[in-house]
Amino acid sequence: MSSQADRALRPADVPAGTWTVDGPASTARFAIKDKLVHTVRGSLPVTTGAVVTDVAAQVVSATVELDTAGIMTGNGRRDRDLLGRHFLDAGAHPRIVVEAGTTTTSDGGWTVHAHLSARGASCPLDLEVTPTTLDDEHVRVHVTGRLDRTGLGMRVPTFIVARDVELDVDLVLTRG
């Protein structure tokens, strides 16, 4: 993918149309305090998604899905715990889905008021989305946000696992 890295991209640089998320080329990372002392970092596979933009550089709709079974923190025991019913309940709910709601456009990107659905619950999630590279058929966007895990019904005490999960996602979108 040839890049327009020599200048900052703006939402207006992203052509209108339907964009498909390239799951294998995308990465979803998270960080959360464990026992409020250590930061645990991990990732989840991005499986699918789509983004629709219009000629006014507005996001019309956007959905991204993640595979809970693929969670990786570098600690097998922790990963199994995260897949269990106290956290992601992956056996009953194998996907995490993020759906965009209202979106505000600025010169630097989009602020997206989204909903994240996981473990049979849904909670609000504000995301900052910045286009970083672009060619004729692809756009890469960087997404950051903070999720309050208690909105998903995770009742693990905050002295064991912090309440907020930091999200850091790179999505590769293909025109189509």
Number of strands: 10
Number of helices: 1
Largest sheet: 8 strands, antiparallel, barrel
- Helix fraction bin: under 10%
Order of helices and strands, N to C? Answer: EEEEEHEEEEE
Structural class: mainly beta
- In terms of DSSP E residues, the strand content is over 45%
Polypeptide structure, described:
This protein is mainly beta and 176 residues long. Helix content is 5%, strand content 55%. The protein is built from one helix and ten strands. It has one helix spanning 76-83, and strands spanning 17-21, 27-34, 38-44, 46-53, 59-67, 95-106, 109-118, 121-134, 138-148, 164-175. Strands 1-4-5-6-7-8-9-10 form an eight-stranded antiparallel beta barrel. A hairpin with a 2-residue loop joins strand 7 (109-118) and strand 8 (121-134). The chain is elongated. The relative contact order is 0.23.
Question: Which characteristics define this entry?
Answer:
about 180 residues, mainly beta, eight-stranded antiparallel β-barrel, 10 strands, about 55% strand, elongated, disordered N terminus
What is the structure about, briefly put?
With 176 residues, the protein is mainly β.
How are the elements arranged and paired?
Layout: E1 17-21, E2 27-34, E3 38-44, E4 46-53, E5 59-67, H1 76-83, E6 95-106, E7 109-118, E8 121-134, E9 138-148, E10 164-175
Antiparallel strand pairs: 1-4, 1-10, 2-3, 2-10, 4-5, 5-6, 6-7, 7-8, 8-9, 9-10
